[in-house]
Amino acid sequence: MSAVLMAPSGTGKTVLLRSLRSSLPEARYRVHFVKLTSLTKRDLCPEMATAAGFDVGGPYHVIVRKLQDGFRALADDDGFRPVLIIDEAQDLRPDVLALLRFLTNFDMDSRLVLSLILAGDGQLRRLLDRPQLEPVRRRPAHCLSAPSRARRNPRVHATSRSRRRRQKLPLRLPGRRRRVRVVSRKPPGHRPPCT
Fold first, then answer.
1. Pick the CATH number of 3-145 from 3.55.10.10, 3.30.360.10, 3.40.50.300, 3.40.50.720
2. What does pTM read for this prediction?
3. pLDDT in tens, 34-59
4. Nearest by Cα to 118 from 20, 187, 10
5. Which residues share a beta bridge with 84?
6. Which residues contact 151 (CB under 8 A, 6 or more apart)?
7. Which of the residues 6, 43, 58, 105 could staple to 39 if both were Cys, CB 3.0 to 4.6 A apart?
8. In degrees, to the nearest 5, what angle opens at C-alpha 143 toward C-alphas 136 and 25?
9. Which residues face 6 on adjacent strands?
C-alpha cells in the first residue's frame, strides 16, 4: 500500500520516517529512502535506482524498465516487499509524480509490488490537488495530515520539540523570559487524531 504524510516543517516527519524504516522487519521489507526530490524525472530515476541498489544505465526508458524489473524481482524472486520513501515530496515536479504512479503500476494495477510513501508539507497537498494529478492523488491507500501545533499554541510546540530532542536545559521562547512548562497533561503515548 502507498501512503502520503503531510505535516508542516519541523513537526518530525523525517523522524517518523526513520522510525518507520527501523521498525519494518528486514526479513520482509527492503526500504529505500530518497531525499533529492527537486530533480527532473530523468535524473530522479537513477537516484532511485542507486538508493535501491540496482545497477542501471542507459536511456531514460531503459532505466524506468529496469527499476520496475528490479522491484518486481525483489518481490517475486527474493520474497521482499520493496518500500520507497520519498521525503520532501512537495519539491517533486508534477511529471515526476506521474512517473511514480507509473512505477507502482504492475500487471495493469492488479498487483501491489512497490509501496510508496510520500512525505511533505502543505505544498504537497496543493500539488496533489492539481486536476492533472488526480490519478496520482487516488493511488495512496492512506493519507495522514497533521496540523501545525506551533500556530495553535507555541508553548505546546516548543515543549514538544524540547522533549523530542531530549534537551537537558529548559527551552525558552524567543522574546520571553519565562521557562516553557508543560501545558498538556496527556498520557505519554497519547497522540492527537490526524485531521
1. 3.40.50.300
2. 0.71
3. 987 788 888 888 889 988 988 888 88
4. 20
5. 32, 116
6. none
7. 43
8. 100
9. 120, 145
